[in-house]
Write a structure and sequence with these properties.
By secondary structure, the protein is α+β, with helices and mostly antiparallel strands. It folds into two domains: 15-200, 2-Layer Sandwich (Fructose-1,6-Bisphosphatase, Chain A, domain 1), CATH 3.30.540; 211-336, D-Maltodextrin-Binding Protein, domain 2 (3-Layer(aba) Sandwich), CATH 3.40.190.80. The protein has helices at residues 3-10, 15-23, 32-53, 75-90, 224-234, 251-261, 280-293, 324-336, and strands spanning 62-66, 72-74, 94-99, 106-107, 113-124, 135-143, 164-170, 174-179, 185-190, 195-200, 211-213, 244-245, 264-267, 297-299, 319-322. An eight-stranded mixed β-sheet has the order 4-3-5-6-7-8-9-10, with helices on both faces. Strands 12-11-13-15-14 form a five-stranded mixed β-sheet, with helices on both faces. A hairpin with a 4-residue loop joins β9 (185-190) and β10 (195-200). 45% of the residues are buried. The model has no long low-confidence stretch (mean pLDDT 93). Bound molecules: 1,6-di-O-phosphono-alpha-D-fructofuranose. 1,6-di-O-phosphono-alpha-D-fructofuranose binds next to α6.
Length: 337
């Protein structure tokens, strides 16, 4: 009998236990972050269950509304947003919420306020819902650094000021990937226990990868450096093998694969979308935070992504993120352009 393996199987590191362990390193901590995270985890479990039942529950289909990005809202988007907003407000630990689905920020009423601001996309990749392909929730967390009335300025801060970021992927398994600034850790939902269990401690992205991930249908509108980079991926002139192309079209799925296998994910600017497609606060920043914590890089075409200072809550930015060496190559092409 393999006692070591057995001990591992019976000594389950749940996400709550993990965060409580982290918290014990800070004697001044009062458990606010653990409580906030437990509400995020509840939202993720709810959405996971709703996604799994979507076909059965006839949740698939348009809710008859258009969100502020001009995209058709699905029932699951609406449901996920409601669940997360209510879970975050009821945690008593938040003051400002920014959701992809809501045009305006939500300011929590004074009696329920707490010291965190959460930016999130409750259900990213919604065009993949109807065909059962992986989708996810993305979130980033800032602390409120004053006791005055909160404003949107409290979240219009660079990504390097986030205190935590993560995503939950609703795929063949449900996985929550989290960083509180001390590495990146992955937890898989054990459906029989209803608990996220640490399965991927201290994830490190390979320094160089052999996969690139981009919507190549936009190629005719790309700028010079992006075009040259993708050309290099396909027709390398230095004797290295050509990279494989993988593109799901759900940022969570594409970034998750990039984090585990290495390589690069690109959503560049193009002639039609000069700022790219992806939103700074709840797509670019959380994923860039995770990439850097895992040893990779995230670049906008001009600067380190986490150094951007957003002016609007739904601002967009081009993004190139992934393995350190792969992002170095695209940085070099922009530097010489
Ligand atoms: P949807 O939520 O509309 O499916 O958009 C998903 C997304 O914001 C992100 O998850 C993908 O990486 C990206 O858009 C895909 O965009 P393209 O369809 O333009 O490739």
């Amino acid at each position: 009998m393999d006692h070591a393996a057995d001990a591992h199987r019976t000594d389950l590191m749940t996400i709550t236990r993990f965060v409580l362990n982290e918290q014990s390193k800070y004697p001044e901590s009062r458990g606010d972050f653990t409580i906030l995270l437990s509400h995020i985890v509840l939202g993720c479990k709810f959405v996971c269950s709703a996604v799994n039942k979507a076909g059965l529950a006839k949740l698939i289909g348009l809710a008859g509304e258009t969100n502020i990005q001009g995209e058709e809202q699905k029932k699951l988007d609406v449901l996920s947003n409601d669940v997360f907003v209510k879970a975050l407000v009821s945690s008593g630990r938040t003051s400002v919420l920014v959701s992809e689905e809501d045009e305006e920020a939500t300011f929590v009423e004074p009696s329920k306020r707490g010291k965190y601001c959460v930016v999130f996309d409750p259900l990213d990749g919604s065009s993949n819902i109807d065909c059962g392909v992986s989708i996810g929730t993305i979130f980033g967390i800032y602390t409120l650094d004053h006791t005055n009335e909160p404003t949107t300025e409290d979240v219009l801060k660079p990504g390097n000021e986030m205190v935590a970021a993560g995503y939950c992927m609703y795929g063949s398994s449900c996985m929550l990937v989290l960083s509180t600034g001390t590495g990146v850790h992955g937890f898989t939902l054990d459906p029989s226990l209803g608990e996220f269990i640490l399965t991927h401690p201290d994830i490190k992205i390979p320094k160089k990868g052999n996969i690139y991930s981009v919507n190549e249908g936009n190629a005719q509108n790309w700028d010079g450096p992006t075009t040259k980079y993708v050309e290099k991926c396909k027709f390398p002139k230095d004797g290295s093998p050509a990279k494989s192309l993988r593109y799901v079209g759900s940022m969570v799925a594409d970034v998750h694969r990039t984090l585990l296998y290495g390589g690069i994910f690109l959503y560049p600017a193009d002639k039609k979308s000069p700022n790219g497609k992806l939103r700074v606060l709840y797509e670019v920043f959380p994923m860039s935070f995770l990439m850097e914590q895992a040893g990779g890089q995230a670049f906008t075409g001009q600067k380190r992504a986490l150094d951007l200072v957003p002016e609007k809550i739904h601002e967009r930015s081009p993004i190139f993120l992934g393995s350190y060496d792969d992002v170095e190559e695209i940085k070099a092409l922009y530097a010489e352009a």
